[in-house]
Specification:
By secondary structure, the protein is mainly β. The chain is built from six helices and 37 strands. The chain has a 37-stranded antiparallel beta sheet that branches. A hairpin with an 8-residue loop joins strand 24 and strand 25. The longest helix is centred in the middle third of the chain and has 10 residues. The termini are far apart.
Length: about 625
Amino acid sequence: MNGLPDFFETFIHLSATRLTTKLSDITGFNLPIESRRLMLPDFLQKLGQISITGKFTGFYNDFVSYGNFNTDLGQLKTDILMRVNAREDIEYKGNIVTKDLNIGSLFNLQDYLNNLTAQAEVRGSGIEFESMEITMNGSIQSIDFYGNNYKDISLSGNLNDKKFNGLVNINDELINLDFNGIIDYSQLIPAYKFVATIDSAHLNQMNLVEHDSTMILSTKLDIDLSGNQFDNLQGIVKLDSTRYSDNGKHYEMNDFTLSVTRDGPEYSLFRLFSDFADVSVEGKILLRDMPLHITNYLNQYVDTLMADISASDKMLSTQDFTFDIEVKKANPLMELILPELKLAEGTRVTGGFNSKISNLFFDVKSSGIEYSNVRFDRFNAEFLTRDNDFTLSTFSGKVFFTDTLSIDSIQGDFSVNNDQLIYALKWNNRNWETSNFGDFEGNLKFLSPSKMELQFRRGEIVINDTVWEMIPANLVEIDTSSFSFSNFGLTSAGQGLYLNGKISSNPRDTLTILFDKFNLSQTDRFLSKSAIDLDGTINGNFNIIDFYETPNYISDITITGLGFNKELLGDAILKNSWDPKQEAFGILAQIIYQGNVGKIETLEISGKYFPNREDNNYNIKIDLNNYKLKTL
């Protein structure tokens, strides 16, 4: 050291062959500076014990330093020239190299990042973000990200006036990426302008999503946005030439353009143009407040279902907007996000919401909507707030439950108020050879978030010219997964079909289906696709016990005049019971034919079924006597 005792004019030449220290030692030195201590970021404490070899040559404010640092988190090598210029800014130039440096632990990002091996050439000035000017060129030889190791990543960029302009290139077997863009923090609201080309990103293998291992994405992303939260973002997002593979299926999207325009905090315009749908939302809207606004709205009508809202949560900004959605070729997208739903091209949803007058409304028009294989043709729906309730009216020209089972002209009207839904359902199959229509009215009471009561005040259904009516004073009580039926049934000209009992997680609860002179011909319409025609009259009951876990079926049924595809078989008896000691069902099925010479038992099936056994679980005897094989 040459120049002491004037520290500021002292020339220092320091050579360390081995120096072991830690951050607390360094920050504990008394220095001839105003703060007396060297202030370093706390996160550097995680480096633990540091072993240093290297050299320091120059003045305290103008020096060259070369060093190797072995830490508890990995290795760091520096070769840096640093000085304080005439403007009192710190200038630096040199190289930084890391080897297996655990940056995840260093920066509390260990869930995403681990070891980094890289080298970078750095030139710049300033240590505060507001005044930094940095140019950097480098490469990452190896980095651990989300459980994968990526190699040979090149990067370069510069930071000037709080604007970062950079390039990143990744050429890896899991992803090819070219990124070129600017991140601008020079204004109060930051801005982002970049282009990223992604080729063959294996999303599942990159551990970005939990899904099929064959997920591959390629796209060109062009972003020009400003904002520091979702509700002040504005600009344009474009995706071009997007290709996606999932579980062997290939999807394409040639255009996706989202634009957001704002006129202060009072007006926003969202527009989306894509292969799948065109969407516009216009007016006063803050998405952060929408969940509370919807909760406030629903609380006026079904407050038992909604959570209580504090007074502060009710002091929300006014929302007043309209929306318009026009579906294009959306089914490839629906196959990915909601495969049960299919929407016809041209389906349109329009509506709006005004929180000041608590008004929500929307209309749906579609030539076809399919959900869980139930298809609605020529579907319309209208939702609006009126007086003290909100109402929903729906109409479908035809509803297909299967290819051969459908109902025509179905209309539903629903209104909600005072924790109660009042409904009316009608349909009319005018084009059938026989009359088939339905007309039901009732209500659903919401007693709590998990408890409801369903009643049919009036109900009439006509199947194959036969009129069926609901039993008065019926009730269905619903409690989470529990369903209790009381006086629930249909009657018609001396015949009836009834439900009583309970379905729940209690293995002792029993649901009973009671047949009273029920004509099997009523099922012909439902079995026509299977080419099955049944005749006969059923009496008796069918019980289901322990519905959810291990269902047990107990029956005592007789069928008078059983016919199969126009062949008279005779009278049938179907009985089965449960033997708790053997844990077996006792089975008895008989067909008795009354001929000119007397009664003949043409079929008997008897024995036991052991549901809890893995093998040898049947002990069944079948006896045939003059049975009509034509029915088989």
